[in-house]
Amino acid sequence: MADLNILHADMDAFFSAVEQRENPELKGKAVIIGGVSLSNRGVVSTASYEARKFGVHSAMPIAQARKLCPDGIYLPARHGLYKESSREIFNILKKYTPLVEKLSIDEAFLDVKGCERLYGHPVEIAKKIKKEVKKKTELTISVGVSVNKFLAKLASDFDKPDGLTIIKKDDVKSFMYKLDIDKIWGVGNVFAAKLAEEGVYKAGDIWSYSLEELKDKFGKAGVKLFFLSRGMDNREVKSQSEIKSISHEETFIDNISDQDKLFAYLFKMSEKVSFRLHSNSLKGNTIFIKVRYSDFSTYSRQKSLKVAVNSSEEIYQIAKTLLNKDNLLKKPLRLLGVGVANLCSEGKEQLNLFADEDDHLDQTIDELKRKYGFDKISRARKLYLNNDD
Ligand SMILES: [Mg+2]
């Protein structure tokens, strides 16, 4: 049944490629883009393919990159410039289908079902996108074409840079069988190490486990692994306008009364919400929280603002005020949640003159989380929580 309708399009070493385009002298050289500042305490946000040969990669401390690649060209990020190119690229993507789900400044899913008559077979559409991006922006984009989001994303990553990889339904089994387990969405270093103890190194090694076994061993993550290791993923491509609110909530194994711990959870969840807002280029005017006590009684509170927000710090601070206001933390919590509603596209909201610096910090952190998994990149406040919290 499944057709090749899902595309994942991902720019190649986007920030450094833009810098190389702006200054042709940088072409063919090891170019490393840091955060807004280039201090040695910062991290690499993008390394050109030439720099990657030295072992430099995103999320690596600048100090370490300088040791590996002392002759590299280190540049501060110019987000305004990258945003301009990003806009051009998304205008191209949106020509082929209204179903474009933005994952970040340089990456999106497309559902091209029903677009054949206008633009041809999905593989033809992928080729057209690649050609047009190259022509209009002088940059290369890798595209994966497959039957679902998970496989399309694996496909776009398969032959970077300037790749075009198709994973047909009939090829899923052989493709997944030999795929390294840490390529599976949600399998970070810690989980991969646990799986290695079980003798699991490739996706195919999971197939002999039943769904129940994986659920018992690894909980929700095990269930996900069961399906993804078989290349199964039923998530739909969602365009921005379909998203009404973004929230995150957690049910605790044991009820929690320690306020510091609850605020640490709140911050972690605010970061997740902020990350998803940024990924979709959204901001929101309403912040809401939800609490549930051991007797299952549930309360929520919300606050609407004049200015739309999406930074983790702003979300956290407002949520914290909401929790404190009616003394909602007076009893142990079974569940805590935070979210943002009343969403609008970034750029269309009212201007917030003071948000700029914090925005860039969030942007860099978001970029890294997207690439390296959420829990590897965390801010100091979260250290209060254990790793598996
Ligand atoms: Mg990219």
From TrEMBL:
Read off the CDD domains from this record.
Answer: PolY_Pol_IV_kappa
Keywords per UniProt: Cytoplasm, DNA damage, DNA repair, DNA replication, DNA-binding, DNA-directed DNA polymerase, Magnesium, Metal-binding, Mutator protein, Nucleotidyltransferase, Transferase
Q: Cofactor comment in the record?
A: Binds 2 magnesium ions per subunit.
Q: Which GO terms describe its biological process?
A: DNA repair; DNA-templated DNA replication; error-prone translesion synthesis; SOS response
Which Gene Ontology molecular function entries are recorded, alphabetically?
Answer: damaged DNA binding; DNA-directed DNA polymerase activity; magnesium ion binding
Query: PROSITE patterns annotated for this entry?
Result: UMUC
UmuC domain location is 6-188
- What is its subcellular localisation? Cytoplasm
Top EC class per UniProt? transferase
SUPFAM superfamilies documented for this protein: DNA/RNA polymerases (SSF56672), Lesion bypass DNA polymerase (Y-family), little finger domain (SSF100879)
Q: Where is this site: Substrate discrimination?
A: F15
EC number(s) per entry: 2.7.7.7
Catalysed reactions, as listed in the record: DNA(n) + a 2'-deoxyribonucleoside 5'-triphosphate = DNA(n+1) + diphosphate
Which residues are named in the active-site annotation? Answer: E107
- Which residues span the membrane? none
The principal localisation class reads cytoplasm
Cellular-component GO terms for this entry: cytosol
Q: Which domain of life is it from?
A: Bacteria
Function, as annotated: Poorly processive, error-prone DNA polymerase involved in untargeted mutagenesis. Copies undamaged DNA at stalled replication forks, which arise in vivo from mismatched or misaligned primer ends. These misaligned primers can be extended by PolIV. Exhibits no 3'-5' exonuclease (proofreading) activity. May be involved in translesional synthesis, in conjunction with the beta clamp from PolIII.
> What's the subunit arrangement here?
Monomer.
What family does this chain come from, according to its entry? Belongs to the DNA polymerase type-Y family.
Protein name, entry field: DNA polymerase IV
The species this protein belongs to is: Halanaerobium saccharolyticum subsp. saccharolyticum DSM 6643
Q: Which gene encodes it?
A: dinB
